[in-house]
C-alpha cells in the first residue's frame, strides 16, 4: 500500500539505498576484500598441498631429484599462473561484454558521461593480473626445466645455456616460452589499448595463451591425441571464464551498487542485477563446458572403473567433479532466487546479502578446486592408462638432457 504524502516531503528510500555511512552488505563485503583475497589464496594452496600429499606428486625422487624448491615451487607457480590467467580472461570478458563503460549505461565511451567506476576498476585489476601472469609464466618456465632435467636451480653459465636450449629446442620449453611472450603482449595491450575493439582483440589473444598449455602434459601422450587435446582446451576455456568471472564479481562488489547520496558518485545507478544476470548466463555455459569436457577427458585418461575409484588419480578427479557440481548448484541458486529478488523492491537488501555470501563460498571452493586441479596435472595416471608414469625427458640422461653438446 502506498501512502499519499505531500509532494514536498520526500519518501525515504532506505530499503533500496543505505544511509550515508551505513554498513550495507556491499560496503561490509568491500571492507573485507583483503581478507577475502587472503582466504581465497589460502584455500588455493591448502587444496594444492593436500592434493599433492595425497597423490605423492611432490615426493622426493629416487633418481634425479631436483630438490624441494622445484618439487613444491613448480605446482605453486602453476597455481598462481592459472589464477592470474583466469583473472585476465574474466576481466576482459567483463569489460567487453558485461559492464557498461559509462555511468549513463552506454557500452561505448560517452563524451558527456564519465567512465563507470566498475569498468575502471576492471581494467586496473586485469592489468595487475596480467603482470602476475607474465611473472608466474617465467617462473613456471624455469622450474619446468629444472624439474625435467632433474637438477636444482643454479646461476652458473651451464644452467643458463641448458635453459636456453630447453626454451628453443624442447617442446615443453617452447610451449612455456610462447606463454610468456603472449602474457607479456597481453599485459602491454591492457595498459595501452582503451577501445572496446582493442580489448576484444586482447581477449582473443589471452585465450590463445591457453593453447600451449593444452598441447603439453598428459593429454599430449594420449592414444586419442586429438580428443584429449580438444577436450582439455575446452576445459581450460570454461574454467578460465568461470573462475575469472567470479573473481571479478567479488572485486567489483563495492562499485556495482547505487552510490550513497552525498558521495562523489551520487546518482550512480545500481547495476548489480543486470551484471549478475549477464554473468549468470556466461557461468551456466561455462559450467556445462567444464563438466562435459572434464568427463570426456577423464574417460580418455582412465581405462576402467577401478582406475577411477581405486587410484589416487581417479579419486582426485572425483573430488574435483564433486566440487564442480557444488559450484553449479550455487550458480543455480543465483539464477533461480538471487537474481529475481534483486529485481524486486522488497527483496533487494536480503538478496544482496545472500549474493555476496554465496560469492565468498564460491571463491573458497574454486580456490581449493584450482589447487586440486594443479596437483592432478602433476600426478601420474594409473598404470593401466596410456600415459607415462613420469614426465617425458628429451633424452636418456636426466641431468644433461637439456644441455647443448
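^ Assign residues to that structure.
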Amino acid at each position: 500500500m502506498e501512502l499519499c504524502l505531500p509532494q514536498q516531503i520526500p519518501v525515504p528510500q532506505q530499503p533500496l539505498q543505505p544511509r550515508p555511512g551505513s554498513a550495507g552488505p556491499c560496503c561490509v563485503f568491500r571492507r573485507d576484500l583483503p581478507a577475502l583475497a587472503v582466504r581465497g589464496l589460502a584455500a588455493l594452496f591448502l587444496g594444492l598441498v593436500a592434493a599433492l600429499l595425497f597423490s605423492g606428486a611432490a615426493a622426493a625422487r629416487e633418481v634425479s631429484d631436483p630438490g624441494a624448491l622445484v618439487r613444491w615451487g613448480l605446482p605453486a607457480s602453476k597455481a598462481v599462473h592459472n589464477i592470474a590467467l583466469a583473472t585476465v580472461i574474466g576481466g576482459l570478458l567483463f569489460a567487453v561484454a558485461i559492464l557498461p563503460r559509462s555511468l549513463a549505461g552506454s557500452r561505448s565511451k560517452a563524451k558527456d558521461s564519465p567512465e563507470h567506476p566498475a569498468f575502471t576498476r576492471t581494467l586496473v585489476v586485469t592489468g595487475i593480473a596480467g603482470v602476475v601472469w607474465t611473472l608466474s609464466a617465467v617462473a613456471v618456465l624455469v622450474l619446468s626445466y629444472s624439474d625435467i632435467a632433474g637438477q636444482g636451480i643454479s646461476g652458473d653459465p651451464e644452467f643458463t645455456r641448458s635453459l636456453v636450449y630447453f626454451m628453443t629446442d624442447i617442446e615443453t620449453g617452447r610451449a612455456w616460452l610462447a606463454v610468456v611472450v603472449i602474457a607479456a603482449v597481453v599485459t602491454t595491450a591492457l595498459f595501452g589499448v582503451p577501445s572496446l575493439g582493442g580489448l576484444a582483440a586482447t581477449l582473443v589473444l589471452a585465450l590463445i595463451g591457453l593453447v600451449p598449455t593444452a598441447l603439453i602434459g598428459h593429454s599430449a601422450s594420449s592414444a586419442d591425441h586429438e580428443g584429449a587435446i580438444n577436450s582439455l582446451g575446452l576445459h581450460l576455456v570454461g574454467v578460465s571464464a568461470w573462475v575469472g568471472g567470479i573473481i571479478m564479481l567479488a572485486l567489483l562488489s563495492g562499485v556495482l551498487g547505487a552510490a550513497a547520496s552525498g558521495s562523489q558518485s551520487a546518482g550512480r545507478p545500481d547495476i548489480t542485477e543486470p551484471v549478475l544476470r549477464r554473468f549468470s548466463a556466461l557461468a551456466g555455459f561455462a559450467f556445462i563446458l567444464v563438466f562435459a569436457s572434464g568427463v570426456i577427458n577423464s574417460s580418455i585418461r582412465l581405462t576402467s572403473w577401478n582406475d577411477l575409484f581405486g587410484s589416487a588419480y581417479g579419486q582426485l578427479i572425483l573430488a574435483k567433479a564433486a566440487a564442480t557440481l557444488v559450484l553449479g548448484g550455487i550458480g543455480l541458486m543465483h539464477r533461480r532466487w538471487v537474481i529475481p529478488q534483486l529485481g524486486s523492491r522488497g527483496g533487494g537488501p536480503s538478496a544482496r546479502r545472500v549474493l555476496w555470501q554465496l560469492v565468498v563460498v564460491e571463491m573458497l571452493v574454486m580456490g581449493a578446486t584450482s589447487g586440486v586441479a594443479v596437483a592432478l596435472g602433476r600426478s601420474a595416471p594409473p598404470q593401466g592408462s596410456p600415459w607415462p608414469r613420469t614426465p617425458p625427458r628429451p633424452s636418456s640422461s636426466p641431468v644433461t638432457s637439456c644441455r647443448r653438446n
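Residues 25-54+66-106+113-256+270-378 form one domain.
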